[in-house]
# Entry
Amino acid sequence: MTGRIPGLNALRFLGALSVIALHLGSFDVARQGGWDYWHPLVSGKTGVILFYVLSGFLITSLAIDETRKSGRFAFGLFLGRRALRLFPLYYLAIFVIFLLALSGKADVPSGSWPYALFYAYNYVPREAYNGLLGSFHTLATEEQFYLFYGLALWLAFGRTLPAGAARRKWVFVFIGAVLLIVANDSLVQPAAAFAGSHFPHRWLVLAMDPLLVGCCAAIILRNEQVERMLEHFRGNEASCRTLGTALVLTFAALYVSFAALGNTTLLSIGFVALVVHFYLFREAPVHRVLEVRPLVYLGTISYGLYVWQAVVLGTGAPSRWIDPPLLAVVYVFLLSVVSYEFFEKRFLGQKRYPSGGKAPEPTAAREKVFPTAGGAA
# Structure
């Protein structure tokens, strides 16, 4: 099984931190310092792409674990887990923004509320847009994706299947995901016609590439033939170093190229290379450094950080209602800790899985594919 992957919580926190920095004005700081060319490498958009890749990879890995163990995919439980993780805090934040609007601290057009309430803020018209709700377009895109993706998995794995049939169906899911990634390029030009009235680049069909790339990576990596191949090279230190170095260089090259190319799919592949490195080389020193308790905790509350930065910071100075900015950031972190400890945990404890009502436990054989990474990281 997938097991817990050391270091990923730190990546989640860095993704959330990039969004906070963007809404504090990181682009203006970069422009004043003359390094605005490189700003895309640390921008909130890059952090969101990282979130999407991580989400697609982990959700698909868990779905593969589920189908291997029970032979089927429980769509209802899947939706229930997603709802318990996201809905309580999301709707609490919507309620807080509603109170801010009533108190006059936020000017929210009436047409904005239906899009926020129904998880569709990625489709909000520009005339109804509000900065405090603006960050929620990413949550809308992700949950719309998982509604359709979960339905597709249920259609493929809703009934108990023999192991061989399940493996073949995962191949078809992979092919479908790749075809969608390729097809997205043909939709960019027609969607541009709506740029004056909407935010078409946020629409599901154009924004889901990073999620699909993460899903595809999990399907490839969790393929049984690939797993056997990795096990074959597991004890070969030279092979480990070569693979580890190749993954790091791929990530570095595609990450740096984003400043010049701005290609979301290529950046997503770069982030996948990084995630695969974390997955395979779990004992690498750099990954263990990222496992210090403060970073792990900040990654654990990263969803809260993302939601509360939206409420407190908005999408920048025009929608921010707390000054100075440093005080606003303190509020974001305090609210994230309080909401996680005293609100979110109550719902997270109710999540149910097919395996006896608990999250699947990792097996020792799967937990460490390359337990001795040497200097690969």
Remarks:
- The radius of gyration is 21 Å.
- Residues 8-367 form one domain.
- The chain is about 70% helix and 0% strand.
- The CA atoms of residues 34 and 306 lie 28 Å apart.
